[in-house]
UniProtKB/TrEMBL annotation:
Highest taxon listed in the record's lineage: Eukaryota
Keywords carried by this UniProt record: Mitochondrion, Mitochondrion nucleoid, Transit peptide
Localization in the cell: Mitochondrion matrix, Mitochondrion nucleoid
Biological process, per Gene Ontology: mitochondrial respiratory chain complex III assembly
Protein name, as recorded: Mitochondrial nucleoid factor 1
């Protein structure tokens, strides 16, 4: 039975999209990593809690097939903020998140980090001795 579960999760991983704009934060990549950890021995993995594994699979499969989106259709393609899905994707992209983190630091901290020198980068100058 473990082999069947493993194959179901593999198929789910194949179908689950990856979002390259969310490096290190992508749910599809995270899912693949978790499946690899849970099934370290592939089809031969002995699961400690098969029922919990089945529940997890069923939940992820519902998300992947957009069952709730179909069951509860939205009247608009925006949220209460008026932001569209595409605008939200752009805002949540890794590059945008890093830029927002930079802006949160404040101008002074950003400038001091950018222009400060590290001790290993500084070469001591020869100071002329007074005789």
């Amino acid at each position: 039975m473990s082999a069947t579960r493993y194959r179901r999760f593999l198929k789910l991983c194949e179908e689950w999209p990856r979002d390259e704009s969310k490096k290190g934060r992508d749910l599809g990549t995270f899912l693949r990593q978790r499946v690899a950890l849970a099934f370290r021995e592939g089809e031969n993995t002995q699961l400690s809690d098969p029922e919990k594994c089945d529940q997890m699979y069923d939940s992820l499969a519902r998300i992947n097939t957009n069952i709730y989106r179909e069951r509860f259709p939205r009247t608009r393609d925006t949220s209460f903020t008026g932001v569209t899905v595409e605008e939200c994707r752009m805002l949540l992209a890794t590059g945008s998140m890093q830029q927002m983190d930079e802006e949160k630091k404040g101008l002074w901290k950003t400038l001091t980090e950018r222009f400060s020198t590290k001790p290993e980068d500084v070469t001591p100058e020869k100071v002329p001795e007074n005789k």
